[in-house]
């Protein structure tokens, strides 16, 4: 169950990320997400090393470009052995298809899973309609993106916990729903807009939670991590681990 909570390692440098991971010494290795802040400074070899040490890795690069460029980028990442990779659903069907083919072509023992970002959890209804220019509700947009992302070959989506049940209805139970924008009760929402608690996200069908600052900025990160794991464990939802 602890691998259902993915820790966003949003740190500026390798050394800081390593110091943070030292808190887990002697504990089971957590599922870690490396975003581009850390990736750009620490580099691909840092990821390969963590993978060798046994960390499950979610590389969050949110690729969004013409199909050929995304495919070539994925080919370059192929040898790192990452478990999850993000691409933007708004790149369209052919971009996602090209990403899938590249992920298959570079797969070792296990193929990386491609997660299509639907609408960022920092986007609210008004921003979607007035700034981004997409009509309709956030839920409608997210479930439409999830449907075409599934048809194009994505393994799942990134969405907020607010849309997760609708995404599962629009796709299938095995299509992954990975939800950032998680805030335990009483925690500061910061720049996030569509937030839910860990329990609500899992109850509504999320497969994985992505949690950054509520753990990384905690005075006791391991305790904060386990508090979230316990909150979802209490729901008694069965996952195949
Ligand atoms: O792709 C992501 O992981 C992502 C998508 C999204 O819509 N919203 C979102 O917050 N994220 C990431 O999830 C993490 C959330 O961090 P906290 O807000 O600190 O919990 C960050 O690393 C974001 O980059």
From TrEMBL:
<feature type="binding site">
    <location>
        <position position="212"/>
    </location>
    <ligand>
        <name>substrate</name>
    </ligand>
</feature>
<protein>
    <recommendedName>
        <fullName>Orotidine 5'-phosphate decarboxylase</fullName>
        <ecNumber>4.1.1.23</ecNumber>
    </recommendedName>
</protein>
<feature type="binding site">
    <location>
        <position position="33"/>
    </location>
    <ligand>
        <name>substrate</name>
    </ligand>
</feature>
<dbReference type="GO" id="GO:0006207">
    <property type="term" value="P:'de novo' pyrimidine nucleobase biosynthetic process"/>
</dbReference>
<dbReference type="GO" id="GO:0044205">
    <property type="term" value="P:'de novo' UMP biosynthetic process"/>
</dbReference>
<keyword id="KW-0665">Pyrimidine biosynthesis</keyword>
<feature type="binding site">
    <location>
        <position position="183"/>
    </location>
    <ligand>
        <name>substrate</name>
    </ligand>
</feature>
<dbReference type="InterPro" id="IPR001754">
    <property type="entry name" value="OMPdeCOase_dom"/>
</dbReference>
<feature type="active site" description="For OMPdecase activity">
    <location>
        <position position="65"/>
    </location>
</feature>
<feature type="binding site">
    <location>
        <position position="192"/>
    </location>
    <ligand>
        <name>substrate</name>
    </ligand>
</feature>
<feature type="binding site">
    <location>
        <position position="10"/>
    </location>
    <ligand>
        <name>substrate</name>
    </ligand>
</feature>
<dbReference type="InterPro" id="IPR011060">
    <property type="entry name" value="RibuloseP-bd_barrel"/>
</dbReference>
<dbReference type="InterPro" id="IPR018089">
    <property type="entry name" value="OMPdecase_AS"/>
</dbReference>
<dbReference type="GO" id="GO:0004590">
    <property type="term" value="F:orotidine-5'-phosphate decarboxylase activity"/>
</dbReference>
<feature type="binding site">
    <location>
        <position position="213"/>
    </location>
    <ligand>
        <name>substrate</name>
    </ligand>
</feature>
<comment type="subunit">
    <text>Homodimer.</text>
</comment>
<feature type="binding site">
    <location>
        <begin position="60"/>
        <end position="69"/>
    </location>
    <ligand>
        <name>substrate</name>
    </ligand>
</feature>
<dbReference type="Pfam" id="PF00215">
    <property type="entry name" value="OMPdecase"/>
</dbReference>
<feature type="active site" description="Proton donor">
    <location>
        <position position="62"/>
    </location>
</feature>
<dbReference type="InterPro" id="IPR047596">
    <property type="entry name" value="OMPdecase_bac"/>
</dbReference>
<keyword id="KW-0456">Lyase</keyword>
<dbReference type="InterPro" id="IPR013785">
    <property type="entry name" value="Aldolase_TIM"/>
</dbReference>
<feature type="binding site">
    <location>
        <position position="121"/>
    </location>
    <ligand>
        <name>substrate</name>
    </ligand>
</feature>
<feature type="active site" description="For OMPdecase activity">
    <location>
        <position position="60"/>
    </location>
</feature>
<keyword id="KW-0210">Decarboxylase</keyword>
<feature type="domain" description="Orotidine 5'-phosphate decarboxylase">
    <location>
        <begin position="4"/>
        <end position="228"/>
    </location>
</feature>
<comment type="similarity">
    <text>Belongs to the OMP decarboxylase family. Type 1 subfamily.</text>
</comment>
<comment type="function">
    <text>Catalyzes the decarboxylation of orotidine 5'-monophosphate (OMP) to uridine 5'-monophosphate (UMP).</text>
</comment>
<dbReference type="InterPro" id="IPR014732">
    <property type="entry name" value="OMPdecase"/>
</dbReference>
<dbReference type="GO" id="GO:0005829">
    <property type="term" value="C:cytosol"/>
</dbReference>
<feature type="active site" description="For OMPdecase activity">
    <location>
        <position position="62"/>
    </location>
</feature>
<comment type="pathway">
    <text>Pyrimidine metabolism; UMP biosynthesis via de novo pathway; UMP from orotate: step 2/2.</text>
</comment>
């Amino acid at each position: 169950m602890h691998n259902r909570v993915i820790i966003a390692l949003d740190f500026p440098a390798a050394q800081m990320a390593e110091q943070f991971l030292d808190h887990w010494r002697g504990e089971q290795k957590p599922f870690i997400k490396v975003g581009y802040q850390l990736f750009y400074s620490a580099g691909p070899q840092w990821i390969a090393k963590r993978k060798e040490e046994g960390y499950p890795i979610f590389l969050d690069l949110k690729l969004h470009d013409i199909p050929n460029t995304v495919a070539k980028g994925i080919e370059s990442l192929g040898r790192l052995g990452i478990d999850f990779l993000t691409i933007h659903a708004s790149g369209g069907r052919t971009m996602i298809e090209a990403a899938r083919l590249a992920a298959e072509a570079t797969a070792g023992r296990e193929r990386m899973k491609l997660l299509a970002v639907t609408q960022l959890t920092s986007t609210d209804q008004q921003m979607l309609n007035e700034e981004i220019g997409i009509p309709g509700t956030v839920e409608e947009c997210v479930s439409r993106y999830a449907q075409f992302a599934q048809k194009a070959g994505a393994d799942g989506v990134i969405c907020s916990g607010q849309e997760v049940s609708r995404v599962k209805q629009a796709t299938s139970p095995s299509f992954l729903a990975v939800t950032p924008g998680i805030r335990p009760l009483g925690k500061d929402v910061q720049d996030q807009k569509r937030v839910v608690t860990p329990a609500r996200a899992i109850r509504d069908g999320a497969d994985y939670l992505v949690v950054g600052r509520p753990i990384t900025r905690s005075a006791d990160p391991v305790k904060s991590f386990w508090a979230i794991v316990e909150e979802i464990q209490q729901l008694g939802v069965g996952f195949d681990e």
